[in-house]
């Protein structure tokens, strides 16, 4: 009979209780891997995150699935403000990093230390793309926040879903969901966000893989499976 305590669902914004990670903690366990998904709104990340988590589960890997902004109770409250309240650009950038600080402390770091893999919908590359690229935040301010909030930490692998803004916008519109403050931005904004993601990928080619998101979901899933295999299960 299993002695594992009950676990909260992978998408829970609550930090896991200490005993939920206990079976993996204690003895020296290898640190988990940190995988992030990025791209303009509507590029198709969410659909592929679910498939990726299923692939990892099938290999017996314990996965913490989470998102930014959000991932903790406080982070989800900040998300509501960030997605719906107008604010100054620098306020927006600092709130993104405030939510991230909490997320790292309460959820990401404990999970990685306990050997869980963390699959996160967006991380600091999104701040670079949206706030620096899209809105014009000064790069040195972004770099200062990044160095303060997660010095020396970057994802092990980042998948950037690359898609033309008009196709992404059509997908968002077809989904029928109420658009948030970011999704209501015009094409030019998403052109800049997309370019910033591609620039970030050029700056960190070992970590960031660009995925052509203008393909059928099954084709994209197969490519992700291949990338994960090459990177983590050679
Ligand atoms: N490869 C694809 N081809 C066509 N449609 C897709 C594809 N992937 C996802 N979609 C559809 O596009 C819409 C947006 O997909 P999804 O929510 O996965 O994007 P996202 O990148 O997570 O967007 P957001 O960042 O806004 O949450 C959904 O309705 C989804 O069903
Ligand atoms: C982390 C992060 C996110 N954003 C923006 C990008 C999206 O429009 C929303 C999050 O919505 P999603 O549907 O869950 O992807 O927030 C941002 O501008 N900067 C960031 O750092």
Give the SSE map:
Elements: H1 18-21, E1 34-39, H2 45-58, E2 63-67, H3 73-84, H4 89-113, E3 117-121, H5 124-134, H6 139-149, E4 157-162, H7 165-175, H8 187-203, E5 208-212, H9 217-232
Parallel strand pairs: 1-3, 1-4, 2-3, 4-5
Helix pairs in contact: 2-9, 3-4, 4-6, 5-8
The protein binds adenosine-5'-triphosphate and ligand LXEULUCI.
The site of adenosine-5'-triphosphate has 13 residues, from helix 2, helix 7 and helix 9.
Please, could you describe this protein's structure?
This protein is an alpha/beta fold. It has one domain (30-232): 3-Layer(aba) Sandwich (Rossmann fold). The chain is built from nine helices and five strands, in the order αβαβααβααβααβα. It has a five-stranded parallel sheet with strand order 2-3-1-4-5, sandwiched between helices. α4 (89-113) packs parallel to α6. The longest helix is centred in the middle third of the chain and has 25 residues, at 89-113. Mean pLDDT is 92; it is low at 1-10. The site of adenosine-5'-triphosphate (ATP) has 13 residues, from α2, α7 and α9. This is Thymidylate kinase. It holds the Pfam family Thymidylate_kin.
How would you summarize this macromolecular structure in one to three sentences?
The chain is of the alpha/beta class and 234 residues long.
> Which structural class do the helices and strands define?
alpha/beta
Given as residue ranges, the uncertain stretches (5+ residues, pLDDT < 50) are 1-10
CATH topology heading = Rossmann fold
Q: What percent of residues are in strands?
A: 5-15%
Query: What Rg, in angstroms, do the CA atoms define?
Result: 17 Å
């Amino acid at each position: 009979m299993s002695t594992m305590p009950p676990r909260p669902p992978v998408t829970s914004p609550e930090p896991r209780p200490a005993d939920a990670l206990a079976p993996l903690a204690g003895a020296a366990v290898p640190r988990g891997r940190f995988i992030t998904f990025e791209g303009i709104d509507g590029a198709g990340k969410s659909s592929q995150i679910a498939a990726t988590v299923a692939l990892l589960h099938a290999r017996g890997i314990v996965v913490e699935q989470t998102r930014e902004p959000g991932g903790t109770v406080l982070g989800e409250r900040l998300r509501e403000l960030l997605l719906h309240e107008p604010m100054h650009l620098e306020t927006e950038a600092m709130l993104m990093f405030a939510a991230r600080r909490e997320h790292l402390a309460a959820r990401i770091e404990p999970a990685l230390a306990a050997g869980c893999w963390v699959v996160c919908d967006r991380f600091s590359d999104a701040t670079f793309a949206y706030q620096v690229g899209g809105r014009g935040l000064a790069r040195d301010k972004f770099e200062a926040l990044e160095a303060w909030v997660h010095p020396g930490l970057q994802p092990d692998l980042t998948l950037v879903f690359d898609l033309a803004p008009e196709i992404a916008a059509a997908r968002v519109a077809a989904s029928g969901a109420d658009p948030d403050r970011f999704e209501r931005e015009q094409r030019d904004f998403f052109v800049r966000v997309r370019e910033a993601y591609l620039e970030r990928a050029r700056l960190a080619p070992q970590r960031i893989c660009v995925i052509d998101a203008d393909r059928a979901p099954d084709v994209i899933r197969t490519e992700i499976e291949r990338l994960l295999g090459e990177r983590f299960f050679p």
